[in-house]
Amino acid sequence: MVALAFNLGLFFDETTAGSDSMMAHPAWHAMGIDTVLKQLDTDRAQGLSEAAATDRLVQYGENKLKQERHKSALALFLGQFKSSLIIILLAATLLSALAGEPLDALLILVIVMFCGILGFIQEYRAERALDALQTMLSPSTTVLRNGARREVLSRLVVPGDIVIFEAGSRVPADARLIEAHLLKCDEAPLTGESPPVSKAVHISPPDVPANDRKNMLFAGTATTSGRGVAVVVATGMNTELGQIAGEVATVETEKTPLEKRTAEIGKWLGIVVVAICLLVVGVSVAREAVTGRVDSGFVMRTVLFAVALAVAAVPRLCGDCHGCARHWHAPDG
Question: pTM for the full model?
């Protein structure tokens, strides 16, 4: 979670300078409180009526981040065995088992499975980055509805809701402060900065970056001290957190030049290994055939020798492959 917050902080700093053009709502931070309340058609003391909240829920949708379809755990796991060198090891496992060497087959299989599980764990964690964003949202929050305090599910919060914050409250959506009493907010999930940020209701300049808007509270953050009241101005994917989640979801995973070169070298070296093994078997069998001494026992021994050759070559080739790729990837000089 710390690493995720740091990465999101870097992204937040790079994108918030131009966030006004990206946001579907006006520059709320640059407006007076009365203007904000008027534009959102809500009442400071009464909040929204239940009917108005229901209508807005239909209009804007639930206050939650869009769920992207993940690769299944099975697909991620099977994807670890697409490497040509891993396929060679699996073929060696099968041949060893067919040749009556179950111990050798088991040892090779254990090594292959260990590599596959390690790669699966790393990819699975990366695939679930958006789920970590979703957990930043509070399950419930306190709002004013029909002039009374109500505890509602955060996914049912809508623009125009008056939200009441105490120390330790999670911010369910982007909101403009209308009251603040010694209020401080932990914005580390967005900015990566650990010190709490003091909040106030005064108007901010229109062009100020989002992380410097002292009169705004952002979804996914939390109050650390004080108390305050704010009006919700954006929910779901229209929040600053939602914009980050959208960018994360649309980023295409692309292999680095090092990974591409490593895969290419591994592919061709794998072909060479298979060719050499086939050549060894073919030459050995042909030589014995000339003398007329070819039998099933000899063929089996030759196959096992080829398997041993392939298994011995794969770790060596993996090391050489990564070493060559690193050398080619290094800058000149």
Answer: 0.58
51-75 in b/e form (b: 16+ CB < 10 A) is: ebbeebbeebeebbbeeeeeeeeee
Instruction: Extract the tokens encoding 311.
Output: 């298994």
Please give the Cα distance from 35 to 269 (Å, whole number): 69
Reported as a single tens digit per residue, the pLDDT across 191-208 is 777 889 999 999 999 989
Q: Go through the domains of the chain in sequence order and give each one's CATH number.
A: 2-68+133-250 (2.70.150.10), 73-127+254-329 (no CATH)
pLDDT per position as a tens digit, 250-259: 656 666 677 6
How far apart are alpha carbons 35 and 28 in whole angstroms? 9
Token duo for residue 327: 């050398």
Radius of gyration of the chain (CA): 30
Distance of CA 245 to the CA centre of its chain: 9
Pair 193, 187: CB distance under 8 Å: yes
Of 23-32, 130-139, 153-162, 199-208, the range with the lowest mean pLDDT is 130-139
- Residues 171 and 189: their CA atoms lie apart, in Å, by 12
Q: In this predicted model, which residue has the larger pLDDT, 87 or 234? A: 234
